[in-house]
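User: SDR family NAD(P)-dependent oxidoreductase, Nonomuraea corallina:
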Amino acid sequence: MGSLDGRVALITGAGRGIGRQEALFFASEGAKVVVNDPGVTAEGASGDPGVAQAVADEIRAAGGEAVASTDDVTDWAGARRMVETAVEAFGDLDVVVNNAAIQRRRALVNMTEDEFDAVLAVHLKGTFAVTRWAARHWRDQGDSRDRAVINTVSASGLLLPGITQGNYAAAKAGVAALTVAHAVELARYGVRVNAVSPSMARTRLTEGVPGMSAPTEGAFDPLDPALTAHVAAYLATPGCPVNGQVLAVRGTSVTALNGWSVGESVTKDGAPWTVAELGKAMAALPWRDPLEEAVAMVGGSLGDGNRDKLLAMVDAMLADPG
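Assistant: Predicted structure for SDR family NAD(P)-dependent oxidoreductase:
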């Protein structure tokens, strides 16, 4: 007996990386899987329909059930077709895993409109569009079956400032916001909505990131993208009590993230602040430095001279004439 026996799962971006591992693991736990992936590059260019089909074939060869989908998450009609594909192939839909991702890394002064729009379209609009059509299906079903949505976010935009990838950070922060909003909205239909935030997972999008070492043969690999799949599967299980949460996954550590929190404040009674008064009061507050926080987060992978190395990476991106 698997933890997902009989569940029907639609997984976007399932042709490679974390999405592929989620598709394979969900199937091994008994889920019937719609493997969605248009087969684009890490930057979102071109497309290879064979990528999704290869994963579906691998699942079936292992005795599981799967169909391939090559629809684009940014296409409104395509998002609807993904849901219809699940219902036509397997009779219903129980789980959506929004994992589709691309990356266009560029410093702000060089980033183009297309580079910004394309990343937000895949991550933010794609998550919205697929979830919307799934939610419409569940509402129309009118039953009380346990359903789940698992979104994919990142430390960029949540814990890190997203240096030289403001488009990606903004999109992922937006997906975290959608997660909480949709968790409240869809609870009335028996749908739980959570997010996973993979950290230091070895994928196409993290190639070249400091600390992404090659796995050691025969040893446990803490950077294996399959580790995220186990957490996503837990969130997809019937009766899982978690809703409206973002879980950071780093190796085998799973940490609940609390999002924006209230910090220190200043108050003046009886009259508005003057600019000078407010400046004096604000100067006494303990401000957070996003650069220092970024250094602290990735310091272990950068080694000694962390701050200088991170700044050098930023300077290299800024030096690109675009």
